[in-house]
Fold each of these.
Amino acid sequence: MKSRKRFLMISGVTALVVLLSAAALVGGYPHRQMAMATEGMGERAGGPNRFYHEVLPDASWRTIVRPSPDLVYSALAYDLRTGPLVIELPGHDDYWVLQFVADNTDSWAYVGSRTHGRAPVHIALAHGDQALPAGMDGYRSPSPTGALILRYLVRGKDEFREIDRKRRTIKVVGAVE
Amino acid sequence: MASPLSITALRDSLLGVLTGLLTGVIVLLAIVVWQADRLTLFNPNGWMTARDLGSTETDPLTKAFIARIGLFANSAEEALYLQAIDGEPLGIAGLLRGRPARRLQGGVRYRIVGAGDIPSAWYSLTLYDADEYLYPNAESRWAFRDEELIRGVDGSWAVDVAPERPADARNWLPAPHEGEFSVTLRIYQPDPLVYADLTSYDLPRVFRVEGP
């Protein structure tokens, strides 16, 4: 009887250890993936809170798997620990979208032609109880760090040049508190 | 000197650890298969997709799954991503191997037929080689956007996915001669009608025209 009890206890604890270790690995996986991705973005941009601009994907493009050749990507790794940011995006009369991604891979907001039409967009990005500057749309990130992914639809080579010029006018500055 | 009691104890402990490991692994496998089954949606017109990509309401296992297969994928109201499949879903055996369905096969000619437009801002079909990057070809044709499709008078269209341009092809998407590849249908800012039930929405149809 005692032997059976010992067997059950040890097997139960072992199974639990296996499951808990797996849960810990799985639970931390999105954070690890994001940390890797944002580190790469920061390196390409020359630091956090700066956009870097990709070229239009073709068959030699290797930045991410399964790229869309109809979209041109820009990306920014944000770090709000030193304060909120103000982002000014130019107006655009075709499809574009800015995706806000938290440090656990959650897409927590979108800004673009679907939400703002063709008009220029001025937004503030903050975390926690940081004060948001008045007079613009405020977005509160659920995590102090994360990423912004910007996609423009490109319908041809000429249009690409125009979009490329435009996206380089995007301003990202620290908000004055 | 080991007493008979401690030998029994050692045996019980070893058996206990082994049984525990085995139980843990079996339960894990069951959870993974159950989760993959729950997350994979099939459309009868020849497409496969994942539920809730990019959503903030997903559980930790789903989040890990999404981080693995589609980091930075948009949520449904922004974009849908569907992958063409060859034949029927492969069931539990497929899920266990991480292959819910057969991918498209090099050397085979496929045809994707749309009766009209998909209600959305725009949509596209893109072909990826086995390495998940755009497939190099002399035409530099990796994708078709809806506005690029040459259509019939009724607005219907067909895209031929084949290694050589078929004589009757209006829209030819060059594909590899061998190995496996994939075609992704992306639907941007879809009408909610499209994603309300992706398992029954009448999407363009994927046909296997000819090949081994």
Amino acid sequence: MIEGVADGELVRRITQREGAREAEAELCRRFAPRIRLYGLRHLGSEDHAADLVQGVLLAVLEATRAGRIEELDHVDRFVLGTCRNVALRVRQKEARMKPVEESELDVAEFVPNLERVDLGALGHCMGKLDARSRTVLVLSFQAESGADEIARVTETSAGNVRVLRHRALAQLRRCLEGAGGAET
Amino acid sequence: MSCSRPVSWEDLVAYWAGDLAPADVDRLDEHLMGCASCSAESARVCALASAIRGFVPPVVSRATLETLRTRGLRIEENSFAPGQRQPVVFAPTVDLLVHRLGGMDLSNATRVKVTVSVESTGAVLFEDPDAPFDSQEGVLIACQRHFATLPPDTVFEVRAFEASGAERAAVYTIPHDFRA
């Protein structure tokens, strides 16, 4: 089962052209969701994250085929370094990512749907939070306010805001799981 | 798929809230890129954070409403007086149908509680014990398309609390017709 094969062995098979096609697909399946998350966190949009997945996977596959991955067991470091470089280019708008033929790499095949939260269940569960917790979550993730600013608004300390935030998100998660509000 | 040094929930939440020092972000990026189980947990926090980002609360302030309008949401507003029973149609061309629940003296209110229930059964759908309000305008209900899954015969109770201990309440009955 290729799912249980170590990253380094996948890289070796690609470089040595031994079952390379299957190994490449597994490498993409493994890293595409992580690259996408990196893109969402650092570039802030689904479109940029999708572009990042495309650009990084292509670069990683090309490097692997060419035997340019030096640390076979740490291909993740190479992937992250490539993510950082491509993300920097996207942010600086210095260069657009190299356009690719659709047939060359079908990224969608490797990116599972992110967990989708049912809006009705979310409203129900947000309503179950106390007012301050709800405010902290909305200010954190909607207004993108920092802990110090939220602390001023909610008249508490920044440390307490951080505690309120992770507890409220955990409560929200439990409520959504209980309500069957999360769909994959 | 397990991790010998899993990233804590607190750190993942802080990571997605943009509340970690750059060096800690780098450290987490490195761990998440190499760890399938922590990455899967991070994806769950990401999903919650992005759902909250798009969340519109059922009771909104005027400022929130204007922010949503600038984001391009198509908003239609209508007004209701205490005791009024008035059906509304949620047209397909509208993203947000805002009910202005007015006609109450909220000038001395320190807190307003909004309860949404089902007219036919009395079941409570939603409660906001500390809802945003405007002493002139009243309370703004942001009715959203996904509310179509809820019973359509809704009753809104607005209860105002004053520092003196006085309470006043008003009820607005608004049956909804969600057009596809």
